[in-house]
Amino acid sequence: MTTTEETHAVTSQRSTTEHVTVHPAWLPGAASAAVGRRRVVVAGDGALVSTVAAEVAAAVASHGGSWTRLEAGAGVADADLVLTIAEADDGPAATPDAVVQAECDESFRFMRDAGSVVVEAASDAGLLHGWFHVLRLGEAAFDGPDADEKHAPAAALRVLDHWDNVDEHHTMGQVERGYSGGSLFYAHGRVREDLTRVDEYARLLASVGINSVAINNVNVHAREARLLTDDLMDVARIAAVFRPWGIRVHLSVSFAAPVTLGGLATSDPLDPQVAHWWVRAAARVWGAIPDFGGFVVKADSEGQPGPFAYGRTHADGANMLARAVAPYGGLIHWRAFVYNHRQDWRDRSTDRARAAYDHFAPLDGQFDDNVVVQVKYGPLDFQVREPVSPVLAALPRTRVALELQVTQEYTGQQKHAVYLGPQWSEILRFSLGDGVVSNLATAGGFAAVSNAGDDPFWAGHPFAQANLYAYGRLTWDPSLDPIAVLDEWIAQTFPGSPVEVGEALHAILDRSWETYEMYTTPLGVGFMVRPGHHYGPDVDGYEYTPWGTYHFADRDGIGVDRTRATGTGYTGQYPAPWCDVYESLETCPDELLLFFHHVPYSHVLHSGKTVIQHIYDTHFEGVERVEAMVTAWEGIAGLVEADVAERVSERLAEQLRSAEEWRDQVTTYFFRKSGVPDAGGRRIY
Ligand code: GCV
User: Fold this and answer.
1) Which of 235, 397, 490, 623 is the most exposed place for a label (fewest CB within 10 A)?
2) Ligand 1 within 6 A of 337 CB?
3) Which CATH fold topology does 158-480 show?
4) 573-621 residue pLDDT tens
């Protein structure tokens, strides 16, 4: 059958929803041109094979090719591209229609023989990944030498968490730490009727291998809690939109739900009535959404309820929930972000960085198999520079997910162009015990806070789309070079652009993470942001607060002594060699010096500069680099679409203003504290 009858709509051009013209991100119509002009065969059964078929149908309809859909195992006709489910010895591998299989084999094989391509997958999810691989390669899929490659994700879980509130008027905004307008899922206090953009978003996520989303804030307020009850059928509508893209939906739930929603007197995890309440809740949820993914829980953290109130451990809490969802193959993503947010700043012995390890390391081996302990990449909170969390090495008998932040809470809030691929790559390649990735790959995976919203550019800053793209690509294959990933994003987002466009985008973005670090908080000390919204400089903003994020700058020096010898002992949470590397001033890397040590301003870094001169130099150079970004952009702005040009220009102007503000406040603050003049004699206020 050669057909265009598939019902699923495929968006490949700018779409217009609710009077907003939406940018196609990295999947513009041009992306499908190489496939669309060829003869394509799609063979096999399964819900996601139908998605692939619809994609192929749309591509050939736009570009003049042809396509055929065959039964699994049918003799394959002459074709340029065959997308097929592999014949398994023990029966069909495809998932049953309309249900995304949990943790199936998502791999695919890519074979090229004299310009003809066969993509073969064990499951329909794998075939969808294979399809997007071909789309990403474009003409290059068909050019080049014969090939036979196996592609498989590094880990089973590749999740995006949305910190979306249903309530548009929430004090934290509709999307907590969201910089891209309102929520994609909710409007006017309820789930949107029109989920067209959710469908487009799901396609973007599927194209980079994301297979799960959590659709509400981990801070679960009263309105959001009702997603689990009154609004469950609306959640089912969202799940139905994600399903054809191989993405399972999760909900964040409140540990106190048996009390707040169920009217019980307690949410003690060892109380049988509480366990029963969750068993019934799970039965309701999976009854409505058979392929529901599971629950995300932020417990005993920043005011959220948890098992501590009942003298129970986090294993007690997580396992009680895990048992309720286990019959359905559900997961509990239990966050390790647990610390005392009401500490006394006068108390130098309490170290927030220690908290997650102190709470969770003793529980290793006590969590049920369907609990995934979700660990932020650093011990504090998504700072521009932190050491990799030692918790990732402390739970060898636990499923663990590494949590990253695509939304740029502490990295410029999508007003600043900051490509985070290099940061994530550095974390993913860091060797901690057996290596972060091998620890995660066994059974865990990756989660990240999404940066997407209902902004026409999805992410506020058009360049922030690159972070969403890179999160998917790097968690599928952490060995990828983040700059090569950026190159992929540029090629797909600006197809057919003159070569200068790509060059300028690389000039702006390749080292933008480092640039942001230069003009903001120095040498790993962190924070120095305005309290509350976390944008812009305020060196002492958190210094005398209960949040545990201090720099301890005085007239003589700066930094947090986290050594075993004289400080909080945090270095002792690391396995060898890091416990010693970080302990010693001789071996501690410059970029983390102030995270681990309190040193005088005159301390000489490995770079040969004093700490104070490093602070001056990096802040002046950081601003110069932003000026160079602006110049690079001005050179090509006329070569890209007008709305993109306008948005980027406006954001770069703000980045420059803000970088100057950071430079002037930070250099002035440390000049006033230390009394040491800048050797370069530059203007300090
Ligand atoms: C959703 C940081 C953010 C909070 C966020 C929290 C978390 O503290 O500032 O907005 O809460 O992390 O990860 O739970």
Assistant:
1) 397
2) yes
3) TIM Barrel (3.20.20)
4) 999 999 999 999 999 999 999 999 999 999 999 999 999 999 999 999 9
